[in-house]
Amino acid sequence: TCNGQPVTAQPGAWWLDKAFGVIPLGAVARVGENVVTLRAQPFSVWHELEPAYVLGDFALRATERGFVIGPDRALVPGAWNEQGHPFYAHGVAYARRFNVSATAGRFEVALATWHGSVARVRVNGKHVGWLDAPPWRCEVTPHIRRGENLIEVVVIGTLKNTLGPHHGNPQLGTAWPGQFQRGPAEGPPPGTNYSTVGYGLFEPFVLERVWPAAAP
After folding, report:
1. Cβ-count burial of 136 within 10 angstroms (0-12 exposed, 13-18 middle, 19+ buried)?
2. Residue 20 is inside which H or E element, if any?
3. What are phi and psi of 141, to 5 degrees?
4. Which helix (H) or strand (E) holds 206?
5. In terms of DSSP bridges, do strands 17-21 and 14-15 run parallel, antiparallel, or are they unpaired?
6. How far is Cα 210 from Cα 205, in angstroms, rounded to an integer?
7. 206: closest CA among 98, 134, 117?
8. CB atoms within 10 A of CB 198
9. How far is residue 94 CA from its own chain's centroid?
10. Neighbours of 34 (CB within 10 A)
11. What are the DSSP E strand ranges found in 34-143?
């Protein structure tokens, strides 16, 4: 139940893994405190609980005990976990428009400062390539056209932020079973104390004509 109202899993729906069923709460959720109750009768070892995840279009605000869900807001260049999305792991698309007067030569999309597992490059709606190693450049020559070009770079995080471990200041790159059992005994710590990684694009990417050199 949610707020005392019966809710059921959406048939055939799952998130992240087929073991994660999806239970829509939009019709019964409300502003303020919401209580979700799970009851198994008879209870057995097969009903041991794992974390439950709330999905939707919203932002989080850190409080003295975890987080509060609030209205979503547009992202700007910078770390997602500092903009209300500390547990987000999927892709964020950053788009820029470039006007090209001549298509002769070689064109590359170049990233300067960013953090993620991989970045996807799209030009005028078409997938072009991936950025997964320095020097963070992707050739886009065949897809550039005269006039305006829409270029998107999709920065993708990792499941570290979504699944954890989030407590006890774990070393980045480690995820041992014991690290998921280090929650504070007194309950959720301040939201600012959760261990998450600052994924995101920190300055605009550029489209460069690297050969022949562009005229001054």
Report:
1. middle
2. strand 17-21
3. -50, -50
4. strand 206-211
5. antiparallel
6. 15
7. 98
8. 15
9. 13
10. 13
11. 59-62, 67-70, 91-100, 106-110, 114-115, 118-123, 126-131, 137-139
Cα 215 to Cα 156: distance, rounded to the nearest angstrom: 35
Query: 44-56 burial string, b = 16+ CB within 10 Å, else e?
Result: eeeeeeeeeeeee
Task: List the chain pLDDT tens, one digit each, 216 residues.
Answer: 999 999 999 999 999 999 899 999 999 999 999 999 998 888 898 888 888 899 999 999 999 999 999 999 999 999 999 999 999 999 999 999 999 999 999 999 999 999 999 999 999 999 999 999 999 999 999 999 999 999 999 999 999 999 999 998 899 889 999 898 888 888 889 999 999 999 999 999 999 998 875 544
Q: How far apart are CA 194 and CA 183, in angstroms?
A: 10
Single out the residue of 144, 141, 149, 153 nearest to residue 202, CA to CA: 153
- Cα–Cα dist 23/8, whole Å: 6
- What's the Cα-to-Cα distance from 57 to each of 35, 66, 85, 128, rounded to whole Å? 19, 18, 10, 28
Helix count and strand count (H, E) for the chain: 1, 13
Note if the bond before 212 is cis, omega within 30 degrees.
yes
> Alpha-carbon torsion 110, 113, 119, 120, what sign?
negative
Residue 146 CB partners (closer than 8 Å, separation 6+)? 100, 101, 102, 103
Q: Which of 153, 195, 146 is nearest to 171 (CA)?
A: 195
Nearest to residue 119, comparing CAs of 131, 108, 110?
131
